């Protein structure tokens, strides 16, 4: 589900956009000037929020880009296995969440974490 649609020139560093159906965060952006007969071009370097893969692409400045819904929530770690079992601190729902190896090493049971709900997929971003 898309929250809104923006022009490519309106995207800023740190903003979240959808690239090839995947939610990404903009890391670098360059806008070229318009030419005598052409339009401005936007070169965007983005990193996938869930997998960390880098994507680089160039689009005309007037092209439309989708912005995903990203809910940042807090949870408490219940157990750690292949996936981390969390209890949401707002509605006390229990969910299984993916986690990177670096963050998983820092976690212990009963720790509080920030997790992101990105278009229905959850990932732990940091320990609180």
Explain what you see.
The strands form three sheets. A five-stranded antiparallel beta sheet has the order 9-8-7-10-11. Strands 2-3-4-5 form a four-stranded antiparallel beta sheet, with no helix packed on it. Strands 1-6 form a two-stranded antiparallel ribbon. The chain folds into two domains: 67 residues, SH3 type barrels; 58 residues, OB fold (Dihydrolipoamide Acetyltransferase, E2P). The two termini are 28 Å apart. It contains one helix and eleven strands. It is mainly β and 128 residues long.
Name a few traits of the molecule.
128 residues; mainly beta; SH3 type barrels; OB fold (Dihydrolipoamide Acetyltransferase, E2P); 2 domains; 5-stranded antiparallel beta sheet; 4-stranded antiparallel beta sheet; 11 strands; elongated
Q: Tell the overall outline.
A: elongated
Number of helices: 1
Topology, number of strands:
11
In the CATH scheme, the class of the largest domain would be Mainly Beta
**Hey, roughly how much beta strand do the residues contain?**
over 45%
SSE pattern, N- to C-terminal: EEEEEEEEEHEE
- CATH fold assignment of the largest domain: SH3 type barrels
Question: pLDDT below 50 for ≥5 consecutive residues: which ranges?
Answer: none
* Main pleated-sheet profile: 5 strands, antiparallel
What topology, given as strand order, has the largest sheet? 9-8-7-10-11
What's the architecture of the largest domain in CATH terms? Roll
Distance between the termini: 28 Å
Give the oligomeric state.
single chain
The helix content, as a percent range, equals under 10%
For the record, the count of structural domains works out to 2
Mean pLDDT: 87
Structural class: mainly beta
């Amino acid at each position: 589900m898309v929250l809104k649609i923006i022009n490519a020139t309106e995207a800023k560093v740190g903003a979240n956009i959808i690239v090839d159906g995947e939610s990404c965060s903009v890391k670098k952006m360059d806008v070229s000037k318009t030419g005598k007969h052409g339009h401005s071009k936007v070169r965007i370097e983005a990193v996938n929020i869930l997998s960390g893969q880098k994507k680089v692409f160039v689009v005309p400045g007037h092209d439309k880009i989708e912005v995903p819904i990203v809910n940042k929530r807090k949870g408490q770690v219940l157990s750690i296995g292949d996936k981390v079992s969390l209890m949401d601190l707002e509605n006390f729902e229990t969910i299984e969440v993916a986690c990177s190896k670096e963050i998983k090493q820092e976690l212990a049971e009963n720790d509080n974490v920030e997790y992101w709900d990105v278009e229905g997929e959850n990932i732990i971003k940091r320990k609180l």
